[in-house]
Amino acid sequence: MFETFGISAQAESAYSLLLADPGLDPSALTLALDGPADAAVAELIERGLVTPHQAKGRRFRVEPPERALELLIAQEEAALEARRAALADLRGGVADLVAEFVNGRSEVFGGLIEQVIGADAVRSRLYQLAVAARREVWTVNPGPAPSRRALAASRSMDELTRARGVRSRSIFSTAVQISEAMREYLGEVVAAGDEVRLHPDPPVLLFVIDGETAVVPVDTESPGRGALVLHSPALVQPLIVLHRTLWQAAQPFDGQGEAWDAQEDRLHRIVAMLAEGHKDETIARRLDLSVRTVRRLISLAVERLAAESRFQAGVHAARRGWVRAEG
């Protein structure tokens, strides 16, 4: 029972023997343990489970099992608290390193706009903003489903912000539901009390922190190149309005439901139009989507159909019944 708390098997056996007979002398205890008793007794004394006692007929005072368990739990909790404090100190040290890293890769204009260069520096700046958030973080995520590694990083960040009472409101492309790992992650987010909605065509990557700071890509076509961190209310407020507008047009995530069905139907229609020879621009216009979103959905369809090209995707889609046969 005590091995969970790091008590050796020899010490636990010694405890049981002394609990039954506190008057056992070292030689009798050694004989009963079939080995030296000194180390086991010393371990029990160190953990407070037994104490030397000189009363007649008793060499040790042995804590009863329920008291022993409470003592061990209290020791474990104290160790965990000390570990948390040490980790908090480490996090403070990391914050200094992150600040040094970001400052070397960013430029500030009038205290209202920062330009951060490079994907790594942008991630570090977002980390800074997230750990400094006081109330809420709003996001718009137009890209495809992130990798499992990126999702693991997102989970760590989510835990960090939730522990401080910061809530999130996130908009993702409906296309991310193709990924089982992403559906699982979004389910976790919703179960934790945060809000998630799906939009057919989110226009831009966006972060809004506490309604005071916003982050957008320097180049919407290549978000990894860098980001602009906006502090001016005149620049942040329109982005808040954009997020609210997208939020109203989006559907709540429920794992499957209408958003999933709509996404499946959209993929089928896109593949059907590809098979008919339509160009990306024509498909985008007919479905009222951006060309970028259409191309992303085509890539998803190719992946879903295990195809190596658009043409092969059309062949596979016909076999699966996504495309109606002629005649």
Descriptive account of the structure:
The protein has 327 residues and is α+β, with helices and mostly antiparallel strands. The protein has three domains: 2-69, Arc Repressor Mutant, subunit A, CATH 1.10.10; 104-255, Endonuclease Chain A (Endonuclease, Chain A, 2-Layer Sandwich), CATH 3.30.870.10; 258-320, Winged helix-like DNA-binding domain superfamily/Winged helix DNA-binding domain (Arc Repressor Mutant, subunit A). The chain has twelve helices and eleven strands. The protein has helices at residues 9-20, 26-33, 38-46, 65-103, 119-132, 148-162, 180-191, 233-249, 257-275, 280-287, 291-304, 310-320, and strands at residues 50-52, 60-62, 106-109, 113-117, 136-141, 167-173, 195-199, 206-209, 213-217, 226-230, 251-252. The strands form two sheets. It has a nine-stranded mixed β-sheet with strand order 3-4-10-9-8-5-6-7-11, sandwiched between helices. Strands 1-2 form a two-stranded antiparallel sheet. Helix 4 (65-103) crosses helix 5, helix 6 packs parallel to helix 7 and helix 10 (280-287) crosses helix 11 (291-304). The radius of gyration is 30 Å and the shape is elongated. The termini are far apart. The model has no long low-confidence stretch (mean pLDDT 84). It comes from Allocatelliglobosispora scoriae. This is DNA-binding CsgD family transcriptional regulator. Keywords: DNA-binding. Pfam families: HTH_23 (PF13384). GO terms for molecular function: DNA binding.
